[in-house]
Amino acid sequence: MELRVDRERCIGAGMCVLTAPGVFDQDTEDGRVVPPDLMPAPEREPALREAAQMCPSGAITLVSAD
After folding, report:
1. Which of 4, 10, 1 is closest to 61 using CA atoms?
2. Whole-prediction pTM value?
């Protein structure tokens, strides 16, 4: 699974950080999402899916590695 984040689309709501704090972070300058790892561990998939669904701007996308 690959994690994709559109920083231009992000509005800095922080829902991803609250949902998957070990995966996402927010930029201290503009508040937009900063993904530390674009190929996160498989056990984080449920939290990532929830974060993608919770994102109010739709800036987070998960792509299957298949």
Report:
1. 4
2. 0.85
